[in-house]
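haha ok so turns out i had the wrong file open the whole time. this is the CORRECT one, sorry everyone. sequence first:
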Amino acid sequence: MLNRQFLENIRLSQGSYIYAGQYMNDPTDDENAKFRKEDIRYFKIDDEGLYRPAETPMQTTGYKTKWYNAHQMNWYLHLDPAKDRRESDMNGLVVSSVDPQDRVFVHYAQGFNGRPSEIIEKMISLIRHYRYVRNVIIETRGFQEMLADEFYKAVKKEKIYVQILEVLNSLQSKNARILGLQPRFERADIYLAKGLTELEDELLKLGVTRYDDLADALSFGLQHWSAPKVYGQPELEGGDRYGTLDWYRQLIEDKKSDIDSYKNTIGNTIALREYINA
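then structure:
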């Protein structure tokens, strides 16, 4: 027999919408279907540069209490390319980051309509603005694959170092892919910057509105989001400075790890390069 605690754990893992369909034989759960307004949470940056919930701690899950700076996260730029040039079909652009406790922060979400060269220019502008972005997630299929190739050439010419991550085709419908975000919203594992009203509308009206470019772009993260590893934070003069040049120097000099093991940690590339060339 399935006990209540087991079922509650399943609900937290799958989200209320999928759980209601599989375990209650009801595709719309009692509280509400799909994305709920109360599950849309916002973040703020405090005086110490930490990304934390904008609401009071009592309104969030209580077991994840440590918060992190921008340089301690993995950052991503998402692109859902328009399928054609119609005004109603936009290029969905999203900037997100993932902290070491696997919480996602959505910093930017906007539809953009333009020629391929204008899209690439916009993406490069976003990478320069959100300077910790090192991963670009692009759906590559047909025309989109050509766009990815042109983007790669452009960032190489600009000497911008990013990794291009392709969204793998699946048998899932677009709505099903977007619904994969629902459990993370429900568990308070995704926080939005305030003012991303277009993205919020797409999520809350999923299946009703014809617009879903931003929600779809955000869902690409489910294939590629990865929480960075957090290593010990040694006490340095002036306080803890995780991720700084001195932090990497101390780790290397103490032989606590080699350079390669840090290659996937956001912000380390520049720090290590400066150290090697020093």
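The chain has three domains: 1-33, 36-224, 235-277.
again sry for the mixup
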